[in-house]
Amino acid sequence: MRIAISTGGGDAPGLNAVIRAAVLTAVHRGWECFGVRRGFGSLLGESELMPLGPNEVRGITHLGGTILGTSSRGNPLKWRTQRPDGSWEERDRTQELFDSFRANRLDALIAIGGEGTLGIAFDLWKKGLPVVGVPKTIDNDVGGTVATFGFDTAVATATDAIDKLHSTAESHERVMVVEVMGRNAGFIALSAGLAGSADVILIPEIPFDINKVCDKIRRREAEGRHFSIVVVAEGAVPKGGSVSLIDPAHERLGGIADKVAHSIEQMTGKETRSLVLGHLQRGGGPTTFDRVLALRFGAAAVRLVADGKFGMMVALEPPRIVAVPIAEAIATPRRVPLDSDTITTARDLGISFGD
Predict the structure, then answer these.
(1) What is the pTM of this model?
(2) What is the CA radius of gyration of the chain?
(3) In what helix (H) or strand (E) does residue 280 lie, and over which residues does it extend?
(4) Would you say residue 92 lies in a domain?
(5) Are 145 and 135 in contact (CB under 8 A)?
(6) Second label for 190, Cα 20 to 30 Å away, from 1, 41, 196, 313?
(7) Is the pLDDT of residue 27 over 90?
(8) Given a cut of 70, is residue 250 above it in pLDDT?
């Protein structure tokens, strides 16, 4: 067997652990492994496939990022190229990918990625490519699995930042607004905000009323607590409003922390500062939980290939790693359940969701 491994979409701590586990599991079966650089790039003529063996994956479990590189704009079904006049054209390069797959005598592809990458993998599988999926996203919003690797590390990074902001916020009697990742799902904001003792948490699942946010800050002020911590997911939206975009052409989210901070300062008179954690949440080595989960996912993906279970994705169903159809995983993305115990706990502790 000759299998290819690709990493697509945004990077996440634990990607290298998945690659290492998949390669070693395959090698122990006498198989050959090859890395596809920058998403699907190596299968579309951008570069050569990267041979992967024990030497190439030695000592990478604890490293962040991905040794294969990644791309969030490399959909072979809708490949975008720029014309000489600066405009863009979109074309289907699926046949080229299939031709390259056969030319390299590959038997299977392990595609590691989030909703976008898994959606591409599903479309390729429907066209006949033998694909197995591995869910990856720091947002923890892939359906079919209880958790994705990278999430725990992102939450730990965000929580550490919130912890540090407490001391400076209290010293200067300021309101600090922290923006974390979370386009459609507020898992990072909720978990980090709860763990970091935030006073307000704003998530995409609960449209917020800025008046309610300011009411919480005023109550703290009246109680002698002259500082507040607000954690906001990048995809949080005000009631009757829309998401904040810094690049509408590419639908890039951002700027919500600045807007919330400005409103708080104008409405309460409190000095307010904003901080965007951004890609800090993607960087660094994975936590122990993410390392173990990523290694389990990588080994399980190879077992699915061995069993011929293509069109499937590995998933965590505690305490087991199971196989679920990729179609099922991408059909219903995960969102924070409004009746979840975590939401209830936050409300019981007096945290405001702006509603």
Answers:
(1) 0.92
(2) 22
(3) none
(4) yes
(5) yes
(6) 313
(7) yes
(8) no
Verify that 39 and 141 share a domain, yes or no. yes
Task: Please count the structural domains in the chain.
Answer: 2
Query: How does pLDDT run across 318-352, given as a tens digit for each residue?
Result: 999 999 999 999 999 999 999 999 999 999 999 99
**Catalytic residue, candidates 139, 141, 152, 290:** 139
Closest CA to 256 of 307, 300, 203, 293: 203
**18 with 149: CB under 8 angstroms?**
yes
In a domain, 352, yes or no: no
Residues 162 and 216 in one domain: yes
Helix, strand or coil for residue 285? Answer: coil
For 94-108, 237-251, 276-290, which range has the lowest pLDDT when averaged over its residues? 237-251
Contact 113, 7 (CB under 8 A): yes
Q: What is the dihedral of CA 260, 262, 264, 266, to 10 degrees?
A: -150
Angle of helix 288-306 relative to helix 151-172, nearest 10 degrees, comes to 160
Shortest CA distance to 342 belongs to which of 162, 205, 178, 166?
205
Find, among 229, 238, 213, the residue nearest to 354 by Cα: 213
CA distance 142 to 163: 28
Question: Is 141 known to be catalytic?
Answer: no
Q: What is the domain extent for residue 12?
A: 2-149+286-331
